[in-house]
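Take a specimen:
=====
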Amino acid sequence: MTHIGILGAGRVGANLAGRLAVAGHRVTLGIRNPEGAAAPAIGSDPRIAVADQRATARTADIVINATPGATALERLADLRAELAGKILVDVCNATLDADDGLPGDLCYPGGSLAEQLQAALPDTRVVKTLNTMLFMVMTAPEILAVPPTAYLSGDDREAKSTVTHLLGDLGRQPGWIEDLGGISTARATEAMILVVPHVLRRHGFQPFAVSLTR
């Protein structure tokens, strides 16, 4: 059983927490104010603990970044000591909103949030994945007619192997996982987010993923 800490308790974080808890992992959701009004609802599942984000990062074996992408770099850089030696799974997209609130542009054009995180956290092994699909597909890939590809980007092979096993616990078969190479390849998958608002405007908020088919 692995202790997984998830920073961020929105739809992405809460969804991942539920599925990973069902898979048998010890899960802690890291939120800014664990004593606040949102904490009881988040903590209603007895298999999922709730703590502040610093304690979550310090005590977990693997940390998942599910915080808002536009502010994630500043937030996680402040946790450099707590994240040292850990695997950080980054599932976020850092974007600037268009007028309708959907992603309009990238915060790091020509780069990626994952690369920024790796540079800010040199003692942490950053792996980018799951950022090319809507949140419900992250934990239930079977809801799509075509298996959704989970791309992997990261400089550490062992870390990517560990994350591959974690993706299996989220319902993915090995053939649905595509290792793109080093952390710099995350700029390609993060750019895929620019497809999302156009799809959502045409079809509404329906499950989909940007997948590779052969």
